[in-house]
Design goal:
It comes from Suillus discolor. The chain has 19 helices and 20 strands. With 599 residues, it is an alpha/beta fold. The longest helix is centred in the C-terminal third of the chain and has 50 residues, at 498-547.
Length: 599
């Protein structure tokens, strides 16, 4: 410990005091704590050596200790448009009281060129203020575009005085995704890095960060998905979102002759909804002036388009029925009213095998969880309104199937209250113009293995994943694991505008799918090895059990199984446990009780 402390203290002394290491003539009084190694410069050499390093932190030796100073105070000027050199059309020749444009003659208290403008620059290492000299050549860009070409994102397009480096914006996006850092916390960190002793002296640009980060996120998404190279056509619904690389998608990851090569393909969807009642508190407060809310990517990611979704909900009236199955808390808490909230939660659809969110299928809830009441479909003959308690879920699942189907007709939908939802889903689709499915779509409904245990025993064989061909080793609860990171951003998202909240949720879902994509090969390889081991471990015991049974019984069971797999429904009841109640001999029972009492 003592040795480490001695070395740390030694590193804080001015090891290069004396002559400037560059000009070898003037006294060295400046040191840079960002540059690697020990250095000592005079003021002119310091400016010259840091002409392309504007975000380094400088210290001045006052013969007693180091004093923090800035490059701008020492005469540093950031020239735009000419590779760090003064503009030849204006340049540094127009200096008050001095016609010599050399940087060497600009002192800490000396004059500056007439065209310099103090600009606050927010960087990943702190908040800086630099004197910026603009390009005045004929046909030069306006100031905000000159800053953008220098990789500085302006907070305003008219007379910009605050900018953010591309690097700090990238850092902010990564921090929000990995550390769930709020914009306020991130800027407080930058404030502390700038001046830890007196953070109040650092200008507060939190609001500018909020606005610029939204623009930066939108621009980066459009660049990543190729829309920066084709400006004629913009992105459509779900075009700024990644999907699963492993789920079957004709034209993307399947051969052209897949219909002849493969006997059957099934898309697996897991629909799960969470609200405040289920600890998924991505609620959103009412805005004072909702008309000022501006959407940058409405419906282009994972959240559905606002206008179309609201029109769909307007065609439904609320149903207040109770469950005919088990007394599910998520269902019976649906009628809770929260008047101060614009949305009370979200519901999403993801592929059940790999846990990738499906683009343009995530919906908001408006009050409690009334969307997951019970699918009692009524048609109002007077105003042709559809009364359904699953309108939100129906919209999400229809959008998910349309996005991922691409010619695959069979879909497995796993939903925690699928037994109630599936009762009249097809009728709801047929009677609602905003709900559409591809032709010949066949849907098999199941309930996740965790939620199935809370249902009535009679529904176990009909909705269990164990008895569905092609389901494989899927538990149907993968979104339970995907929700966990979102709980950390819910306090921040609660007070956001609806547009900003949508962008944040889209960004985190995109991040989740991206992680799945880059790890998919390793993940599938592990699952493949595990599946092969499971087959090897169970093959011999299964064959021994089969050989120990009567051939006629085995043959009869196989016929029943084939019929159940083809027709589903009540035919799956063959898997229901048949327990015959035994007769109770009262005489023996009384004798046994009498014996116990006598003891």
């Amino acid at each position: 410990r003592d040795v480490y402390l001695d070395i740390i203290l030694d590193s804080e002394q001015f090891a290069c005091a004396g002559i400037c290491e560059t000009c070898q003539s003037a006294e060295a009084t400046f040191n840079c704590v960002t540059c690697a190694g020990d250095h000592g410069w005079c003021r002119p050499c310091l400016i010259r050596s840091h002409q392309s390093l504007p975000f380094h932190k400088i210290q001045l030796w006052n013969n007693m200790c180091f004093q923090d100073v800035t490059l701008a105070d020492q005469g540093f000027i950031w020239y735009l448009g000419h590779g760090g050199e003064p503009c030849p059309s204006y340049g540094a020749s127009k200096i008050h009281g001095d016609q010599d444009g050399r940087v060497d003659d600009i002192t800490e208290t000396g004059p500056l060129p007439q065209d310099t403008t103090p600009v606050t620059i927010v960087h990943s290492s702190g908040v800086f203020t630099h004197n910026v000299s603009w390009c005045h050549c004929q046909g030069s860009d306006p100031q905000h575009l000159q800053l953008l070409r220098a990789r500085l994102f302006p907070a305003s397009s008219t007379q910009p005085r605050t900018v953010f480096t591309f690097k700090v914006l990238d850092h902010f996006l990564i921090d929000t995704l990995e550390c769930k850092t709020s914009a306020r916390s991130f800027f407080e960190k930058l404030t502390r890095l700038t001046n830890n002793a007196f953070p109040d002296t650092v200008p507060d640009h939190y609001r500018e960060l909020m606005r610029v980060s939204r623009l930066w996120r939108d621009l980066k998404n459009r660049k990543w998905f190729g829309f920066g190279h084709n400006m004629k056509s913009g992105p459509g619904p779900g075009d700024l979102a990644l999907f699963c690389p492993s789920c079957p998608q004709p034209g993307i990851n399947m051969p052209l002759d897949w219909e002849q090569k493969y006997e059957r393909q099934v898309n697996y969807y897991y629909w799960y909804s969470e609200t405040i009642a289920r600890q998924w508190p991505v609620a959103c407060l009412n805005m004072r002036q909702p008309k000022e809310d501006i959407f940058l990517s409405d419906g282009l990611g994972y959240m559905v388009t606002k206008g179309e979704y609201q029109a769909h909900l307007a065609s439904a009236t609320e149903s207040r029925e109770r469950s005919t199955c088990s007394n599910h808390r998520a269902v019976n808490a649906a009628n809770t009213n929260r008047g101060n909230l614009r949305t009370t939660g979200v519901g999403a659809t993801a592929c059940a095998r790999h846990g990738c969110f499906i683009p343009h299928s995530v919906v908001d809830f408006q009050k409690g969880k009334w969307q997951v009441l019970f699918n009692i479909l009524l048609i109002d003959r007077l105003d042709d309104k559809i009364t359904s308690s699953h309108m939100n879920i129906d919209y999400s699942i229809c959008n998910a199937i349309k996005h991922a189907a691409r010619g695959i007709n069979d879909s497995l939908v796993i939903y925690d209250v699928g037994c109630q939802w599936s009762l009249h889903f097809s009728e709801c689709v047929n009677n609602c113009s905003s709900l559409t499915l591809p032709d010949d779509t066949e849907i098999v409904v199941a309930v996740g293995k965790f939620h199935l245990s809370t249902h009535k025993l009679a529904g176990f064989p009909r909705y269990s994943l164990n008895f569905i061909i092609g389901a494989g080793q899927v538990d149907g609860e993968i979104l339970e694991t995907l929700w966990a990171p979102f709980n950390k951003i819910s306090p921040t998202a609660r007070s956001m505008s609806q547009a900003h909240r949508q962008e944040i949720l889209d960004d985190h879902m995109h991040n989740s799918n991206w992680k799945k994509l880059v790890q998919i090969v390793k993940t599938l390889l592990q699952k493949y090895k595990c599946a092969n081991k499971g087959i090897d471990d169970t093959k011999v015991p299964f064959q021994e059990l089969t050989h120990s049974l009567e051939v006629s019984k085995v043959s009869s069971w196989e016929k029943d199984e084939k019929r159940a797999m083809e027709q589903y429904g009540e035919h799956l009841d063959i898997y229901q446990l048949q327990i015959d109640k035994g007769e109770l001999f009262l005489g023996s029972f009384h004798f046994h009780m009498l014996f116990i009492l006598m003891r």
